[in-house]
Amino acid sequence: MTPDDPAIAVTDLVKRYGNRTVLDGIGFHVARGTVFALLGANGAGKTTTVDILSTLTPPDRGNVSVAGHDLREAPQHILRAISLTGQYSAVDKILTGTENLHLMADLHHLGKGEGRRRTTELIERFDLENAAHRRAGTYSGGMARRLDIAMSLVGHPEVLFLDEPTTGLDPRSRQEMWTIVGELTRDGVTVFLTTQYLDEADELADRIAVLDHGRIAAEGTAAELKRLVPGGHIELGFDDPGDFERVVRDLPNGNRNEDKLTVEVDTDGSVASLKSVLDSLDPSVTVDRIEIHTPTLDDVFFALTDTGAVNANEVSREAIAR
Ligand code: ATP
């Protein structure tokens, strides 16, 4: 595998349970050392996708390569290169944090010395020093989740699957998790994340795919996805009524607010569109305030999936078809 090869490559992936098609020919690439988020409502097929990519469930059709290994030809190589932190913790509550990590080190055949060294390193890194010798059953949800991820890193995986890693965590623990995920990619680990939290995908993911009815409804960076839905606009604000009037004249399609002395212009949220609006103004005009409003990922999700009330036809179909 060369550095330019994707960490995960999926084409035409199909999975059926009985006569229900859960995945209907999905495809995506995940670059190495990046975070890829698969977004979808309950039952959209996120866990099924993770289960297939991590060799736990066989697909009905499609090509899958993970860490440079073909799923059909070398699933055992994939297993050695990945780690999976599922929705249900792998932490043994009877054991202490240290014992859980030692157990994982044994499973990875690290040897006693290396296993202890790695355990100490991970206990420190995940801020579990004070709880290392306590039974994991006494840990808070956030601590248990940190231990869970620490355990999944014992074997230095190239690709880490995190299935809904922050479900049920309080805001502080979620923030800690996000910091941890950011640090992982800086170390070169590729993270495949499933989440129902749009802010999580927005915060963490380099690229996001929205799964709906077994298909990828859209894929791109958070900024690209936000440009797919209407609602982006720039608001220009003025102190001088003369400037305001001149801009109203130069931007006939803008929405004016004479009380606030503002003009609102629809854009796709890109820098190019902002530049084009500013370039169209008379150079003698002073713009005192600029606010850029972009749609949120929530808007994207509601527009692209049946979960929301907004009709998908409102979305730029051309952009989705990229
Ligand atoms: P959630 O966010 O609720 O975890 P999800 O997006 O991860 O949902 P999956 O768990 O992948 O969704 O399930 C997708 C669909 O496939 C669901 O309708 C589920 O009931 C069905 N399904 C999953 N596993 C099986 C199975 N082993 N046998 C039959 N149906 C299954």
Polypeptide structure, described:
- The structure is a single chain.
- With 322 residues, this protein is of the alpha/beta class.
- The chain has two domains: 8-91 and 139-226 and 299-319, P-loop containing nucleotide triphosphate hydrolases (Rossmann fold, 3-Layer(aba) Sandwich), CATH 3.40.50.300; 233-294, Alpha-Beta Plaits.
- It has twelve helices and 14 strands.
- The strands form three sheets. The protein has a six-stranded mixed sheet with strand order 6-7-8-3-9-10, with helices on both faces. It has a four-stranded antiparallel sheet with strand order 2-1-4-5, covered by helices on one side.
- α3 crosses α4 and α3 (97-107) packs parallel to α5 (141-153).
- It is elongated, with a radius of gyration of 24 Å.
- The protein starts with 7 loop residues before the first strand and ends with a helix.
- The model is unreliable at 308-322 (pLDDT under 50).
- The structure holds adenosine-5'-triphosphate (ATP).
- The site of adenosine-5'-triphosphate has 11 residues, from α1.
| CATH topology (fold) name of the largest domain | Rossmann fold
Which regions have little confidence, pLDDT < 50, spanning 5+ residues? 308-322
Identify the bound ligands.
Answer: adenosine-5'-triphosphate
Care to count the β-strands? Answer: 14
Structural class: alpha/beta
How many separate domains? Answer: 2
Report the radius of gyration as a whole number of Å: 24 Å
Q: Number of DSSP helices? A: 12
Write the layout of secondary structure elements.
Blueprint: E1 8-17, E2 20-30, E3 35-39, H1 46-53, E4 61-66, E5 69-70, H2 75-81, E6 82-85, H3 97-107, H4 112-125, H5 141-153, E7 159-163, H6 171-186, E8 190-195, H7 198-204, E9 207-212, E10 215-220, H8 222-226, E11 233-237, H9 241-250, E12 255-257, E13 262-266, H10 271-279, E14 289-293, H11 297-304, H12 317-320
Parallel strand pairs: 3-8, 3-9, 6-7, 7-8
Antiparallel strand pairs: 1-2, 1-4, 4-5, 9-10, 11-13, 11-14, 12-13
Helix pairs in contact: 3-4, 3-5, 5-6
